[in-house]
Amino acid sequence: MEKKLLSVRSIVAIGIGAAIMFVLMRFVAIPSGVPNTNLNLSSAIVALFAAIFGPLVGLLIGFIGHTLTDLTWGGVWWSWVIADAFYGLAIGLFWKLFAIEDGNFGVKKIVLFNVVQIAANAVTWIGVAATLDVLIYAEPADKVYLQGVVAAGMNSAVTLVLGTILAAGYARTRTRAGSLREDA
Questions:
Q1: Domains with residue ranges and CATH for the chain
Q2: How far is it between the farthest Cα atoms of the chain?
Q3: Alpha helices in 29-106 (DSSP H)
Q4: Residues 3-10: contacts with CB within 8 Å, 24+ apart?
Q5: Of 69, 126, 146, 175, which is most buried, counting CB atoms within 10 Å of its CB?
Q6: What is the pLDDT of residues 79-129, one digit of tens each?
Q7: What is each CA distance from 147 to 108, 122, 142, 143, 158, in whole angstroms?
Q8: Each residue of 4-56: pLDDT tens digit?
Q9: In the 8-state DSSP scheme, what is residue 178?
Q10: CA pair distance 105, 170, nearest whole angstrom
């Protein structure tokens, strides 16, 4: 039997995740005071879906959701689209360790999730996005690295609070691995 790259459930998750990301980025963005850098709740959504469904789903949600948002603003800023895709991929690489789907998302897993998301945010926004801005668009380095630091900090904080709450809440809806036993 041939194994599929993506299950129907994963494809639905990509559609839902990208749609939620689009709505949050487009209509719930709060200016940070740094040009072209907003406080966004969408980073928590990308992290949540990547932590539940894995790296490919996280990558596609980040890519599709950010691309759709940029298209409605008049032009795609590819460096940040690639960065959001990378962010979803990076968090998704650890999805099995988080065990959210198994209902086993206790304190140790929450700490691991947040260490991973903070590292992923730092690498994504300070490393990937800012560097691609300089390479692709010849943007001034001081400007884009400031944007990257601010974006990494805000996205880390949003994911720490909202992402953790959503992941813990979702995990509570799942049957814990090994929790069922047969009555005699």
A1: 8-173 (1.10.1760.20)
A2: 70
A3: 42-53, 55-73, 78-92, 95-98
A4: 5/56, 6/56, 6/57, 9/53, 10/53, 10/54, 10/56, 10/57
A5: 69
A6: 999 999 999 999 999 999 999 999 989 999 999 999 999 999 999 999 999
A7: 31, 12, 9, 6, 16
A8: 889 999 999 999 999 999 999 999 999 999 998 999 999 999 999 999 999 99
A9: T
A10: 9
SS3 call for 116: helix
| Burial zone of 103 (CB within 10 Å; 0-12 exposed, 13-18 middle, 19+ buried) | middle
> Is 51 in contact with 100 (CB distance < 8 Å)?
yes
Neighbours of 180 (CB within 10 A): 7
Helices 130-137 and 141-158 pack at an angle, to 10 degrees, of 150
What are the tokens at 184? 């005699």
Tokens for 120? 């992923």
Q: State the Cα–Cα distance between residues 19 and 44, nearest whole angstrom.
A: 14
- Bridge partners of 30, per DSSP, are 39
Angle at 7 between CA 95 and CA 123, to 5 degrees: 35
Place of tokens 């966004």: 40
pTM of the model: 0.92
CA–CA distances in Å: residue 16 to residues 45, 55, 95, 145, 176: 10, 16, 18, 31, 25
**Locate tokens 């992290």: which residue?**
47
Beta bridge partners of 31: 38
Q: Name residue 42's amino acid.
A: S
